[in-house]
Structure prediction request, 285 residues.
Amino acid sequence: MNSVYLNGKTLPIEEACVSVLDRGFLLGDGVYEVIPAYAGKLFRLDQHLERLNNSLGAIGIINPHTHGEWKTILQKLVTEHGTDDYSVYLQVTRGVAAKRDHVFPEEVIPTVFVMCNPIPPVDDTILQYGVTAITLDDIRWKRCDIKAITLLANVILKQEAHDADAAEAILIKDGMALEGAASNLFIVMKGKIITPPKSNQLLPGVTRDLVLELAEVNGIPFKERPVMKQELLNAQEIWLTSSTREILPVTKLDNERVNDGKPGAFWINMIDLYRQYKQQLKEMA
Ligand code: PDD
Prediction:
């Protein structure tokens, strides 16, 4: 049985129902998080909950739960699922209003939904050969820092990548490469890891921050600065990071090989550090 959490109750997914008047359904009026859980332990939970709080604040929804309450809700559901690896999807919408209206309703209780989905292990061929990406014009809005459930632009962009047999679309705005349709972007240039700085144009990724933290702790040179599209084509390495796919090496971009077309030495080092960090978490009591 796949149980989910909905508004204070744990129930089988088939029985979890939300009103058609929910503003998430009608207007995409809500935010979400995707949190990995390895061996029953939530990964970088505090960082995910902080970003959730920021997203809720940005759209004027009062956080329906304290940090402690969120921890209890999420951990309980994860524990019920066992010790395989899961991605925990958490969604908060503004709630069910009396009628469809763009303006925020006066009194409304947010809808809280959480489900766990298995994380498939990263495919060996990806680790060996890397993935393909394409560049696409960034058609999204100006608040990409909010993890909003309103994902139509991302869906269209990701589908376009999928149709081109690519794992991801790298989004370009005003000549700058910002992030993937569902991931953050890193390049390696002249022995330095580079990632675009946080702004309203990209999601402040939790994996992104961890990669920078690991670089700092291990003395690997890095810089947060804008990345020009042109630089992508000349990069030593390109990586994409996200909670569900960790750090992916991009070895082909727009049908051209990235460097020698193989995952690079910086990525091999970083994925090793990332895995060690994960392992430590799994072993913690
Ligand atoms: N997406 N940028 C975008 C647009 C994203 O949607 C994501 C993650 C990221 C990476 O963030 P993080 O490292 O915190 O997962 C960057 C999730 C996984 C999703 O929508 O399913």
Observations:
- The pocket of N-(5'-phosphopyridoxyl)-D-alanine is lined by residues 34, 154, 179, 182-184, 203, 205-208, 241-244 (CB under 6 Å).
- The chain has a mean pLDDT of 97.
